[in-house]
Design a protein that fits this description.
The chain is mainly alpha-helical and 174 residues long. Helix content is 61%, strand content 0%.
């Protein structure tokens, strides 16, 4: 994934998709250069779930940039969870969103995975980016707290699908 252009394309597609109501799951296809309008259709949740597969029953290998970025995202989310649901201010959500954006940019810039693992990661990061947009208030149809829940869910998916010793998603209060 060591392609600045790839990261920019995914981020741009995700932002555009969230503005026009296109599901996030359609965006990763566009990042791979499929400019054909036929690929712009709604892939829906089924395709995203289809992309979330293990490597012959095993977790996919990760690399240091991916592990570093996901750890920093997890730590940033965990630090804000006590305030979430207990009167967190817009500025707190926005600061968290900026940190997630910064770590995602680093992952897109420096992470190098085999193509099949990269496809799985794209589906997970698409979910994370949708949640991050919501928690920053960029999607008025989704509550900021629900955006945090989507980010946590994407961290859970990452932990289920990638080798990352000692990694676990933060726990949401029930």
């Amino acid at each position: 994934m060591k392609h600045t252009l790839l990261g920019i394309l995914v981020a741009g597609a995700m932002t555009a998709a969230s503005m026009v109501g296109v599901p996030a799951y359609a965006a990763p296809d566009h990042a791979h250069g499929h400019a054909d309008a036929a690929h712009a259709h709604d892939h829906g949740h089924a395709d995203a779930a289809h992309a979330l597969v293990l490597n012959d029953g095993q977790k996919w290998e990760s690399d240091a940039p991916l592990r570093n970025g996901m750890t920093k995202i997890r730590d940033a989310v965990a630090a804000q969870l006590p305030a979430i649901g207990h009167g967190a201010q817009a500025a707190q959500y926005e600061a968290l969103g900026r940190e997630i954006d910064a770590q995602l940019a680093g992952i897109f810039e420096n992470c190098e995975l085999e193509p099949a693992a990269d496809e799985v990661l794209h589906a997970i990061l698409a979910e994370m980016m949708q949640g991050n947009d919501a928690l920053q208030g960029k999607n008025p149809q989704v509550d900021r707290e629900d955006g945090v829940k989507r980010v946590v869910h994407s961290l859970e998916l990452y932990a289920e699908h990638f080798q990352h010793p000692g990694f676990s998603a933060p726990q949401l209060a029930h």
